[in-house]
Input
Amino acid sequence: MNSDFNDKRRGTLVRSFAFAIEGIIHSLKYERNIKIHLAVALAVIILGFLYRVSSFEWLVIILVIGGMLSFELMNTAVERVVDLVTSEHHPLAKQAKDIAAGAVFIYAAISVVAGCIIFLPKML
Ligand SMILES: Nc1ncnc2c1ncn2[C@@H]1O[C@H](COP(=O)(O)OP(=O)(O)OP(=O)(O)O)[C@@H](O)[C@H]1O
Output
């Protein structure tokens, strides 16, 4: 009985992961911005190896890349929900999309600053 319950829970957990991966794959297929973020992330990782960044710097790079991709996915989710709710031009729809885009923009700006702090001294 207990193992039945555990199997069920494990099933739903695996399904949740599968749905999450489905969402990531969908965004990768249809969202230009996430492809750009991924390309930049790849370039930063290559630079990290080239400049032999420290463990702490890798930690910052990983957090920044993960955060950036997560923000972009949340932004896409907000866009989808807004488009689902209305196809009409509505000030609240604009606010929701623009605020979500603002969140991405802030994190992107912080990522650039973090990248400069890590890489500029090594490059100059
Ligand atoms: N239903 C709507 N009502 C009012 N404004 C909207 C609506 N849909 C989009 N907008 C606004 O129109 C502009 C362009 O939105 P759009 O949905 O094309 O996304 P975007 O900003 O080009 O982002 P992305 O390139 O990531 O898709 C944004 O300012 C957005 O807030």
